[in-house]
Amino acid sequence: MTRNKLREAAMKLFGEKGYDGTALSEIAKEVGVKTPAIYAFYENKEDLFMTVFREAMQLYNTFIQELLKDQRSFGAKESLHRVLTRQYEFYQQNPEASLIVLRYVIFPPTFLKETIEEAFLQSDELLTNIIEQLITQGIEEGAIREQPVQLLVDAFLNLMDGLSMQYFYYTSREVYERKLNHAFEMYWNGAGS
């Protein structure tokens, strides 16, 4: 129970205040325990941070992987669009995890850069494989014209990255959804048959 509360508080505070701006004493206070109690569960601040960062990445991976369950029920166009809307839903439903992932993938603490990059690359590989499957499905369906799959995967991942930034810029759901739909329409016009 205390371990879970520490992780939740750490995810929130690391996301809001940054690694350097968050003291273990603040995390402990948020949970209602003394700072030494943290050491019963975590080796140090870095261990706690990497635990919550990996948890946030895993939460995102699981959320995206759920798309594959019913991918054959939809055509490639709808499946790819669903990846983008699913990403938006993840941000809405998991604001702390979203913030911590985005913040530290872009601006990792120097001494954790390599460790964070490893965790990110594992997630990126998983997401790349999913997108590749959906694009290959689209080519097989004839909905996407024959062209290098890697080109389409890279462009789609860049679209996702751009929309990630847009999410944090625009608080209006209507504005964000318009931007998402327009960006996807342009992507599809370039990829489709």
Automatic annotation (TrEMBL):
Family matches, as PROSITE patterns: HTH_TETR_2 (PS50977)
HTH tetR-type domain ranges (all copies): 1-60
InterPro entries with a match to the protein in the record: Homeodomain-like_sf, HTH-type_Tx_Regulator, HTH_TetR, Tet_transcr_reg_TetR-rel_C_sf
Keywords: DNA-binding
Gene3D superfamilies on file: Homeodomain-like (1.10.10.60), Tetracycline Repressor, domain 2 (1.10.357.10)
DNA-binding segment(s): 23-42
PANTHER family on file: ACREF/ENVCD OPERON REPRESSOR-RELATED, ACREF_ENVCD OPERON REPRESSOR-RELATED
Protein name according to UniProt: Efflux SMR transporter transcriptional repressor SugR
Upper classification of the organism: Bacteria, Bacillati, Bacillota, Bacilli, Bacillales
